[in-house]
Amino acid sequence: MIILTAQAEEWPLAKAFGISRGSKTSAHVVIVKINDGAHTGAGECVPYAHYGETIESVLAEIETVRSAIENGANQYALLDLLPAGAARNAIDCALWDLHAKQKSKPVWQLLSLPEPKAVTTAYTLGLDTPEAMQKAAEENAHRPLLKIKLGNEGDSARLAAIRQGAPSSRLIVDANEGWQATEAIQLAADLQRYGVDLIEQPLPADADDALRTIKSPIPFCADESCHTSKDLARLIPLYQAVNIKLDKTGGLTDAVQLAKAAKAAGLSIMIGCMVGTSLGMAPALLLASFAKYIDLDGPLLLAKDRAPGLVYDGSTLKPCTSDIWG
What we know:
The chain is of the alpha/beta class. It folds into 2 domains: about 5-105, Enolase-like, N-terminal domain (Enolase-like, domain 1), CATH 3.30.390; about 120-315, Enolase-like C-terminal domain (TIM Barrel), CATH 3.20.20. The chain has helices at about 55-65, 65-70, 75-80, 85-105, 105-110, 130-140, 155-165, 180-195, 230-235, 245-250, 250-265, 280-285; strands at about 5-20, 20-35, 40-45, 120, 125, 145-150, 170-175, 195-200, 220, 240-245, 270, 295, 310-315, 315. It has an 8-stranded parallel beta sheet. A 3-stranded antiparallel beta sheet has the order 1-2-3. α6 (about 130-140) links the parallel β5 and β6. The two termini are about 20 Å apart.
């Protein structure tokens, strides 16, 4: 007999984390567990208000498919039962974890993916004053890759301060839809001067067609504009990279499809995350072989991660073990 349970959890952050749309002090997640009487699979998602999700709405979505899951619906059937989003992600990852335990095989083998290896993850600096961001950059100047949240007035000053604080780190800039086309053009010289590798979601998702007219020497990466493989046809003329997050694709099943399609289209790939625990990061690690950039630093932003958790050695993220997930 299969039993599905779902519950909300709150994980305080080490410090307030800001982006162009606001700041947060806790990670609010939903955990799904699926038990077959002998094994339990678990999955985590992060409801995202920007996509119209709340803890309550995600729990309600999960409830709509409880009967189907408890009657044996698998990951592939789930694609037709729920839309892409946080609720489907938690269930999908729990089903894969359960399947791995039932088969006594890791999920990467079940999906015919390469065996995971240690990877270098970006570390994210939240949006703040130039002075605060310079201090954060100094504290993390040993990290090879920093992801910088921008998207408000004063971004040029922030960039200068960050580069002064971390002169050797590679930089990714994430505007979280915070710029307009004119601002993106005006900032291009600063971004190039400070050695930025990638510009993530510079314009609002509903206005990013303007990227057709912006000639940037730095690649643009779609985040809020890219949810599933169905988005790719529209994005290919606008972006040179996509950020794949399981909370957007609705789980690992569709994320694998998106990664394969994006790679076939010649796009660079970032594997990203919402702010959550190791349980939310672990499934995404299986996509690392597709990616040029890994951004799975969610647990590093928490005051305390769940145990057992992923092992971070500085910015080196070790492969997931079966006692965590998969």
